[in-house]
Amino acid sequence: MSSQTAKLKVDPRDGKLAMAHFYVAFIALALGGLMGLLQTLVRSGKFELPWGIDYYQILTVHGVLMGLVLTTFFIMGFQYAAVSRTAGTHSPAARRIGWIGFWVMTVGTIMAATMVLLKEASVLYTFYAPLKAHWIFYLGMTFVVVGSWLDGAAQIMTYAKWRKENPGKPSPLLSFMAVINTVLWIVATLGVASTVLFQLLPWSLGLVDTVDVLISRTLFWYFGHPLVYFWLLPAYMCWYAIVPKIIGGKIFSDSLARLSFILFLLFSIPVGFHHQLMEPGIDPAWKFLQVVLTFMVIIPSLMTAFSLFATFERFGRSKGATGLFGWFKVLPWNDARFTVPFIGMASFIPAGAGGIINASNQMNQVVHNTIWVTGHFHLTAATSVVLTFFGISYWLVPHLTGRKLTKAMNKLGIIQGWVWFIGMVFMSGAMHFQGLLGGPRRSAFSTYGDAAQAAEWIPYQIAQAVGGSILFLGIILMIIIFVNLAFFAPKGEEEFPVGEAENLEEKAPMIFENWKLWLGITAALILFAYTIPFIDMIQNAPPGSPGFKTWNSW
Amino acid sequence: MAKAELKSNKKTEIEDSSSLKGTLASVFFLGIFIVVTWVSVYFLFLDRF
Ligand code: HEM
Ligand SMILES: [Cu+2]
User: Fold this and answer.
1) Chain A contact for B28, CB < 8 A?
2) At what angle do helices A55-62 and A92-117 cross, to 10 degrees?
3) In a domain, A241, yes or no
4) Would you call A269 helix, strand, or coil by DSSP?
5) Which among A476, A439, A539, A400 has a CA at the least distance from the CA of A34?
6) For ligand 1, atom 3, which residue shows the shortest CA distance?
7) Exposed site from A302, A347, A360, A447, fewest CB < 10 Å?
8) How confident is the model at residue A1 (pLDDT cuts 50, 70, 90)?
9) What is the DSSP string of A430-478?
């Protein structure tokens, strides 16, 4: 585990594929960010979209590009590089599969995007039935999922090769984590793949007239919650295994990190009902059971918080810091590779607290479908996760392109992180408060015919427009940095930091690599949480629904 | 001389460098933050439903 037999540099052939993913991801960021800005402006009530562009159309573009395209492409590129760095260069076969996966995902993205631009698919990124899109949109999303499976297969192949060549040894931590996340993703996407293939595609092709909305939404949320952990775990990879090296410290405990990843695999899937707490047709007892399972996820989250604090404190004390919080001051605040992900970690404190409120069964009524929820996931995904991804890009992009992160870019990176943070305090903060006052999410209206209650919301919506403008500036800065690091920064060597555990004698127990066991428990928990409610839903099925198109065509 | 040295030795009460009390304080702060936000929304809930 400690012996870094693997090459210290990602092989250029692997680097090329990772970079291909990043190009798509950052194009998505730029376009999606522009849509986000427009949304906040429309909702402030001071601006109308020109040329017959529809609010729900740009909201679909924003959600799909940010929530699905940016995240999936960045994650697959990052994990592919991390496996190559820690478990060794991918074989030509694995690399070929990775490239096929990349192209399948890209073609799928183009198919879906085209349909949204043609106003044939303003169904938002969750594409719930009975909203009905053009079949090419659904087929495109299927391609994105299948492509990501191929990308994941490449990682699993290289991990398996390492295990074969190193019998009896625990795999490199980053590779292990990448594979956990890939497995989580594959198990989760089975749900969305089933509803798309067996319900939405036949229905949008006109082969069947109606769709069972309850089943479709349940399959979606079987996927939808682990989706957010699929976004989060790569950020945790950086926090657990990369940030310690950047600051010059040690990983607090390799085994603790692995255990927490396994707990995320087990408990992030059988919990989709916590998104359906307000929905009829599901037995409250089963909803409650899934709420309990949801709360189990708090355990690995708090393990993570503890172990990060401990890493920082031990590093600080090794540098001679004293007192209760002296260690905090000696952290390398002028290193963008640390500071930007750190802002992400800190944002996860309010983000996580909000999540516990969302999941608290009856309390969900207070926030359900209000813009509080949007505020919540702009802290989790759009701050904790995205800022960590930005922090990763600051060293990974130059590492892969054979360039260096210059002092100027490092500084711009830190500025970028703070700009994002300030913008998000305004936008997400205002969303949280407006949500508590009942302001709805996903709504193009702002004044609601001058209703008194809606008037209360306007100041918050203006604060969101201010925050959105600051955030958009943050996106421009990020794009400048990315383009610089990819094409213009001076040639040189940038390190791919990989942390070492503090206690090298403590070998991670091999049971962590026992996939039969963990996949077995994962499957058992899923079957336990979903089988009876599913039978119930099918036996007492609601009448099928025809499709609805709630938006105007061009 | 010896006396003075003894004195200064006593004063350099070394802080155990393996101490994790800052971590303990931080996780307590985290826990309290979670409880306080949760309870405030809980009261909002009681008030409304
Ligand atoms: C310039 C930065 C951003 C701005 C100004 C922004 C603004 C917004 C606004 C105002 C909404 C809600 C609109 C509504 O419910 O009517 C929204 C929704 C959303 N945003 Fe962002 N956002 C930004 C960045 C991001 C990022 C980086 C991500 C993801 C990583 C993201 C993911 C989403 C998602 C998934 C939705 C939900 C769409 C839906 O409800 O269908 N956003 N954004
Ligand atoms: Cu969830």
Assistant:
1) no
2) 170
3) no
4) coil
5) A476
6) A36
7) A447
8) very low
9) HHHHHHHTTPBSS-S-SSTTT-HHHHHHHHHHHHHHHHHHHHHHHHHHH
Highest mean pLDDT among A177-181, A252-256, A362-366, B23-27: A177-181
Q: What's the CATH number where A451 sits?
A: 1.20.210.10
The answer to whether residue B28 sits within a structural domain is: yes
| pLDDT at res. B22 | 84
Ligand 1 centre distance from Cα of residue A493 (Å): 36
A207 and A344 belong to one structural domain: no
Read off the DSSP letter of residue A507. P
Q: Look at residue A302 and give its three-state secondary structure.
A: helix
Q: What is the pLDDT of residues A79-105, one digit of tens each?
A: 999 999 999 899 999 999 999 999 999
Please provide the DSSP assignment of A127-193 as one string. T-TTB---HHHHHHHHHHHHHHHHHHHHHHHHHHHHHHHSTTSPPPHHHHHHHHHHHHHHHHHHHHH
Q: What is the C-alpha separation between A352 and A240, in angstroms, rounded? A: 18
Q: Sign of the C-alpha dihedral, residues A520, A522, A528, A534?
A: negative
Site to substitute for ligand 1 among A58, A65, A66, most atoms within 8 A of C-beta? A66
Q: Identify the residue whose C-alpha is closest to ligand 1 atom 37.
A: A63
Global confidence as pTM: 0.91
Domain that holds residue B35: 23-49
CB atoms within 10 A of CB A509: 12
Upper half-sphere CA count for residue A372 (Cβ side, 13 Å): 21
Looking at chain A, the whole-number percentage of residues with pLDDT higher than 90 is 63
- Given its phi and psi angles, is residue A372 left (phi above 0), alpha (psi -120 to 50 degrees) or beta? alpha
Q: Residues for chain A: how many in total? A: 554
- Cβ of A356 and B34 within 8 Å? yes
SS3 of chain B: helix, strand, coil, percent, to 5: 80, 0, 20
Task: Mark whether A474 and A342 lie in a shared domain.
Answer: yes
Q: Which amino acid is at A218?
A: T
Ligand number nearest to the C-alpha of A276: 2
Ligand nearest to the CA of A269: 2
Residue A5 pLDDT: 39
**Domain interval for residue A110:** 8-211
Q: Give the ipTM of the model, two decimals please.
A: 0.85
pLDDT digits over A91-140, tens only?
999 999 999 999 999 999 999 999 998 888 889 999 898 999 999 999 99
Coil, strand, or helix at residue A548?
Answer: strand
Residue A170: cis peptide before it, omega within 30 degrees of 0:
no
Q: Would residue B43 count as lying in a domain?
A: yes
Give the model's pLDDT for residue A3: 38
- Measured between alpha carbons, how far is A526 from A523 in angstroms, rounded to an integer? 5
Q: Is the pLDDT of residue B6 over 60?
A: no
pLDDT band at A550 (very low <50, low <70, confident <90, very high): confident
Between the alpha carbon of residue A138 and those of residues A5, A192, A500, the distances in Å are 44, 11, 43
pLDDT at res. A78: 96
